[in-house]
Amino acid sequence: MSKYILRRILLTIPVVLGILVVTFVIARSIPGDPCRSALGERATEAACNAFNARMGLDKPIIVQLGIYMREILLKGDFGDSIRYSRPVSQMIIERLPVTLELGLSALFIAILVGVPMGVISAVRRNSAVDVATMVGANIGVSMPVYWLGLMLAYVFAILLKDTPFWLAPTGRLTAGLIPDAFYQVWGLGLTRGTTLYMLADFVSNFVFLNALITGQWDVFVDAFRHMILPAIALSTIPLSIIARITRSSMLDVLGREYVRAARAKGVAENLVILKHALRNALLPVITVIGIQVGTLFAGAVLTETTFGLSGVGRALFDAITGRDFPIIQGFTVVVALGYVIVNLLVDISYAYIDPRIRLR
Amino acid sequence: MTTNIEAVVPAPADALRSRSLAALTWRRLFKQRNAIVGMAILLFLTLVAIFAPLLAPYDPVQSLLGIETLKEREAPCIHMLGCPEDKPQHIMGIDANYRDVFSRIIYGTRVSLFIGFSTIGMAVVVGAVIGAVSGYLGGWVDNLIMRLMDVVLAFPSFLLAIAIITVIGRGLQNALYAIAIVNIPVFARLVRASVLSIKEQEFVSASRALGASNLRLLFVRIFPNALPTLVVQATLSIAAAILEAAALSFLGLGAQPPTPEWGTMLGSERNQVFTAPHLVFFPGLAIMLTVLAFNLLGDGVRDAMDPRLAQVAKK
Fold it and tell me: Min CA distance, A31 vs chain B (Å)?
């Protein structure tokens, strides 16, 4: 097992290097002169030469690639944003938690609703519930997330206005509500700029987590009310897929001998379904959940744009329209790395579940 | 003796009916509820696309300002639902440029179907060639190509499409290329896997022994065997491609106004959802219906081509 894991980890190294190279190539292929876009149209030749020398742009392209890889791999330094003149890593610290919270909330909903729906569908096969679930799942995978988001926003912000069900259509928190970071509340007295401070800052940007551990309930409720619509919109596709997989996997398992045996020895039907069948049926579901992370990343760009959340996806989109190359590079690398890590975990869990894979 | 022979040789009608796997698959396909619904929707959409000029009451890009008395982003006016008869009927309302939304939705069918087929068509052709070469040659060529495909697959496809558009510029045509590119690895892997599993089989060795060229082996012996999986994947990929293209257009990276593209229509009016929801509602509904049709058809084709799966489903 450990041998398999080690081999699988080693195999991701070329992929990670490939990602860095591809991102570098993409960023360098974007039309436009970095000097003129930073210093302005009328920058003189001398000024540009100085700028290029300072930025290392006068070096051969292969050396630039080397420097770029060294900075990222050894120092985690993605350079400074052109538009905001701030380190890209600082922006990742601010924005990655928003996207992670959105993605995890959506995944939470998808699992919490999708798995029971799939189980009920399989148990009550061909019933009205089953047909409705499967039709719903088919519609769910076909729905544009941003459209569902806008429609939800319309229903909950306009049609349900002045009712207790009203929900805000944009933002992470109500404007003006600024939560206290846990390291301030606890008086940890961290110095700005240190790695520990950056780490604490990163953690405190998870609004739910921060509110929970410091007991700021008003913030927690407010964050919840803002997160619910985007999370629902983002969850539809994974939810539908999870429901479908759970159903077919349950159907497969329910026809197995050991389920018949359990029934024959008189185990209560609920116990047969939950303990004997579901536990075994969940294995393919876990794999699919891992695969859906990619969908969530893509959906996050659209959902964040629709609901005005300043997460990674939104920042990436803004950077692309604003041609802010360091942000494009940095954020693309972070997203792709996250994707690689999830795939790695899926593969490992797969091998853990199915011993045949390890031996291949 | 004669009776024996008659018993062995099947009657002509039977021979005709069981002639090909394709015919069998077709028959099974028509027993799939999903596939029938999908095909029905698709047929409807195709007819709408073909007869768009006849069905659309207005020109999709022409502004009606000054031609009719209208308000900007006017809500739908349907005579049957009590809209005054003296007002011209606009069953999906009017957009910000005084255009008839219904006509734009109808013409949008053409754009979306074109997007789906052209992107996946490109991806299938390029992917199949790459996969076939890779699987057939093996060795370091195979290794290099497949690692490259791994890298492409390491990016969430939608983000990669956005990145590609950043380089080659926005617009419908470039969005099509971007979506085609991110779809290549899936087909390359599929064809490569088929080639690997088939190339060592005896009928291929036999062909080779008879002196068939590499190209002939590839196209006559190997490709036809990879076709079923390709068709299923392609149908499902078309659904995803339409969804992705619409999303790119929604973000303003794909089709540009005034092209009657559903994602563009939705994206350009997304801030008006609170005042004119019909401008967001109808394009989204159209996208969903089209994607749904391909998804249903893809599921149906997969089940029809895999009798084992169909059996399980019936259990």
Answer: 7
- Chain A CB contacts of B169 under 8 Å are 31
Q: What does the buried/exposed string (b/e) look like for B269-292 if buried means 16 or more CB atoms within 10 Å of the residue's CB? A: bbebbeebbbbbbbbbbbbbbbbb
- The one-digit pLDDT tens for each residue of chain A (360 residues) are 778 888 888 888 888 888 888 888 877 777 767 677 667 777 788 888 887 777 777 778 888 888 888 888 777 788 887 777 788 888 888 888 999 899 999 999 999 999 999 999 998 888 899 889 988 999 999 999 999 999 998 998 888 888 888 887 777 888 777 788 888 888 777 777 777 888 888 888 888 888 888 888 888 888 888 899 999 999 999 999 999 999 988 888 888 888 888 888 888 888 888 888 887 788 788 778 877 877 787 788 889 988 888 888 888 878 877 777 788 888 888 887 887 888 788 777 777 766 666 655
- Tokens 């049957």 belong to residue: B80
pTM comes to 0.83
Q: Are B151 and A18 a contacting pair at CB < 8 A?
A: yes
State the Cα angle at A184 between A178 and A185, rounded to 5°: 85
Q: Which of A139, A141, A305, A341 to mutate to test the interface with B (most CBs of B within 10 A)?
A: A141
What is the distance between the alpha carbons of residues A51 and A309, in angstroms, rounded to a whole number? 35
CB-closest option in B155, B163, B251 to A339: B155
- Closest Cα partner for B176 from B94, B288, B254, B271? B254
Measured CA to CA, the distance from residue A248 to residue A112 in angstroms comes to 18
Establish if A144 touches chain B: CB-CB under 8 angstroms: yes
ipTM > 0.90, yes or no: no
CB–CB of B251 and A139 under 8 A? Answer: no
Nearest Cα of chain A lies from the Cα of B239 at a distance, in angstroms, of 8
Residue B180: C-alpha distances to residues A144, A247, A297 (Å): 19, 32, 20
Which residues is B100 bridged to in the sheet?
Answer: B94
3-class state of residue B279 by DSSP? helix
Question: Using a CB-CB distance cutoff of 8 angstroms, which residues of chain B are in contact with residue A157?
Answer: 274
Fold topology of A88-179+216-353: MetI-like fold (1.10.3720)
Quick one: angle between helices A312-322 and A325-353, nearest 10? Answer: 140
Residue A29 at interface with chain B, using a CB cutoff of 8 Å = yes
Q: Is A30 on the interface with B (CB under 8 A)?
A: yes
Closest CA to B110 of B168, B164, B165, B49: B49
Which whole-number Å values give the CA distances from B186 to A170, B36, B153, B230, in the listed order?
36, 26, 8, 10
Inspect the interface and report whether the beta carbons of B167 and A298 lie closer than 8 Å.
no
pLDDT per residue as tens digits for the range B134-188:
888 888 988 888 888 887 887 778 888 888 888 888 889 999 999 999 999 999 9
- Which residue, chain included where needed, has tokens 């420097």? A67
Q: Please, are residues B63 and B27 in contact by the beta-carbon 8 Å criterion?
A: no
Do residues B209 and B145 lie in contact, with contact meaning Cβ atoms separated by under 8 Å?
Answer: no
The domain locations on chain A are 88-179+216-353
Exposure letters A176-212 (e unless 16+ CB within 10 A, then b): eeebebbbeeeeeeeeeeeeeebebbebbbbbbebbe
- Give which of A150, A151, A172, A252 is closest to A219, Cα–Cα: A172
Residues B136/B218, Cβ–Cβ less than 8 Å: yes
Contact status, residue A249 vs residue A115, Cβ threshold 8 Å: no
